[in-house]
Automatic annotation (TrEMBL):
GO terms for molecular function: RNA binding. This is Pre-rRNA-processing protein PNO1. Residues 151-224 form the K Homology domain. Belongs to the PNO1 family.
Length: 246
C-alpha cells in the first residue's frame, strides 16, 4: 500500500516537471525578437562609446581678442633693397594672406599683425618666414616661394660649425664655396634645386628637406678642402639618381 501511495504522490510531480519543460522551450519567433533586442542594445552602446564629432573651426573661431604680432629685425645692409622691393613684399602679405604689415624705422623692424579679415591660422607664420628669408639675403621672388609651397624650409649654419678656420683660411673656404664669378655656388643651386646665400661666414640655404641635405653636404665638403671638381662629380651622380627616382 505504501508503494501505491508513493506512486500516486509522485505522479503529479512528474507532470508539473513536464509542464515546466514546456514553458522553458523557446520558439523561433522569440529567438528573432531576442536577437533584434540584442543588436539594438549593442548599437546604442557603440553609439554612446563613439568619440564626439565636432565641425572644424575656422580662423575666425580660433581668433582671440588680441591679434597675433610678429616682429622681424632688418639688418642694416638690407635697408636699401627693402625700400626698392617694398611693393613686392607688401602686396602678397596684404592681398593674399590678408594681414597687416608696416616698417617701424625707430626699432628697425618689420611688424606683421593679423586682423579680422585673416582667414588662415598659419598665415602670420608664413609671412614671418617670407620676410625673414628676404632679410637673410634671398630675393623677393625666391622668398615668395615660401608662401606658395608648403614643403620649403630655411637652414642656416656657419663655416666654423663645420671646421674651425680663421684669417686667410676662412676667406679661402668662402672662396671655394662661391667659386670664380659664383660658378660653384650656381652649380650647387641648379643641381640641388635650392638657393644659397653667402653672408660673410654664415650660409643660408632655401629648399626642400632632401635638397637642403644634398646642398649642405656639398658645401661642407668644400669647406673641408675638397676640390670643386670632385664636388661636381658627386653632384652629377646625385642628380642622375634623383632624375631616375622621379
Amino acid at each position: 500500500m505504501a508503494s501505491v501511495v508513493d506512486n500516486q504522490q509522485l505522479q503529479p510531480t512528474h507532470n508539473t516537471a513536464m509542464d515546466e519543460d514546456d514553458e522553458v522551450l523557446i520558439t523561433a519567433d522569440q529567438l528573432n525578437s531576442v536577437a533584434a533586442l540584442a543588436s539594438t542594445s549593442a548599437a546604442e552602446g557603440a553609439a554612446k562609446s563613439d568619440k564626439p564629432d565636432f565641425a572644424p573651426l575656422s580662423a575666425k573661431d580660433l581668433q582671440t581678442k588680441r591679434n597675433e604680432i610678429r616682429r622681424i629685425r632688418v639688418p642694416p645692409h638690407r635697408f636699401s633693397p627693402l625700400k626698392a622691393d617694398w611693393l613686392k613684399i607688401y602686396s602678397p602679405i596684404v592681398e593674399y594672406l590678408k594681414l597687416q604689415i608696416r616698417m617701424n624705422p625707430k626699432t628697425r623692424m618689420i611688424e606683421i599683425r593679423s586682423c579680422a579679415e585673416t582667414e588662415d591660422v598659419g598665415a602670420i607664420q608664413k609671412a614671418a618666414d617670407f620676410v625673414r628669408a628676404y632679410c637673410m639675403g634671398f630675393t623677393a621672388e625666391d622668398s615668395l616661394a615660401l608662401l606658395r609651397m608648403e614643403d620649403l624650409f630655411l637652414e642656416t649654419f656657419e663655416v666654423k660649425d663645420v671646421k674651425t678656420l680663421n684669417g686667410d683660411h676662412l676667406s679661402r673656404a668662402i672662396g671655394r664655396i662661391a667659386g670664380k664669378d659664383g660658378k660653384t655656388k650656381f652649380t650647387i643651386e641648379n643641381t640641388t634645386k635650392t638657393r644659397i646665400v653667402l653672408a660673410d661666414s654664415k650660409i643660408h640655404i632655401l629648399g626642400t628637406y632632401q635638397n637642403i641635405k644634398i646642398a649642405r653636404d656639398a658645401v661642407c665638403n668644400l669647406i673641408l678642402g675638397s676640390p670643386p671638381g670632385k664636388v661636381y662629380s658627386n653632384l652629377r651622380t646625385l642628380s642622375s639618381r634623383m632624375k631616375e627616382r622621379f
